[in-house]
């Protein structure tokens, strides 16, 4: 079964997470610079089958798009053009950075690793993907 990949999009970095082949468990994969996102996906898709890309949809408390949304939409267009066979879905990512930080504390990561924004981005992508998987079961 093809996997599902998620992206926690940022202007500088993107956290990436992936499911297992059964699409049950989400795991952090990597954090990359946003400029390298398309090249990373091209290389990754050479070796792995992915049927859905879940991209976090950042909203504020008033349910309005965040300031980064136009940049995300630009990248969605590029992804669609490069990988038309892969479905792109958006998923609410409110509070994922806070949840990621809490998960790192609960998981026993030391303070230095918790301050690493790349780690937070990857854990956030994992939370987005796990929440997405849970929503499909309902």
Fold and architecture overview:
The chain has 5 helices and 5 strands; from the N terminus they run βββαβαβααα. Strand 4, helix 2 and strand 5 form a beta-alpha-beta unit. It is α/β, with parallel strands linked by helices and 138 residues long. It has a 5-stranded mixed beta sheet, with helices on both faces. The chain has one domain (3-137): YqgF/RNase H-like domain (Nucleotidyltransferase, domain 5, 2-Layer Sandwich). The chain is 44% helix and 26% strand.
Short description:
The protein has 5 helices and 5 strands, in the order βββαβαβααα. By secondary structure, the chain is an alpha/beta fold. The mean pLDDT is 86.
Second-tier CATH architecture: 2-Layer Sandwich
Category by helix and strand content: alpha/beta
CA-atom Rg in angstroms: 14 Å
Spatial arrangement of strands, main beta sheet: 3-2-1-4-5
Number of strands: 5
- What coarse outline follows from CA principal-axis ratios? globular
Strand content: 25-35%
The domain count comes to 1
Topology overview:
Layout (H helix, E strand, L loop, with lengths): L2 E7 L3 E7 L6 E8 L3 H11 L2 E8 L11 H14 L4 E6 L3 H11 L4 H4 L2 H21 L1
Parallel strand pairs: 1-4, 4-5
Antiparallel strand pairs: 1-2, 2-3
Helix pairs in contact: 3-5
Keywords for this entry:
26% strand; 138 residues; Nucleotidyltransferase, domain 5; alpha/beta; 5-stranded mixed sheet
């Amino acid at each position: 079964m093809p996997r599902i990949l998620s992206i926690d999009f940022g202007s500088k970095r993107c956290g990436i997470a992936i499911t297992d082949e059964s699409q049950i468990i989400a795991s952090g994969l990597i954090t990359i610079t946003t400029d390298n996102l398309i090249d990373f996906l091209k290389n990754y898709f050479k070796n792995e089958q992915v049927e859905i890309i879940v991209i976090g949809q950042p909203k504020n408390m008033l349910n309005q798009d965040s300031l980064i949304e136009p940049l995300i939409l630009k990248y969605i267009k590029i992804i669609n053009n490069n990988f038309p066979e892969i479905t792109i879905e958006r998923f609410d990512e409110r509070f994922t950075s806070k949840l990621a930080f809490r998960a790192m504390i609960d998981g026993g990561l030391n303070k230095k690793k918790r301050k690493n924004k790349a780690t937070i981005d990857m854990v956030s992508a994992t939370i987005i993907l796990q929440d997405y998987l849970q929503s499909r079961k309902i």
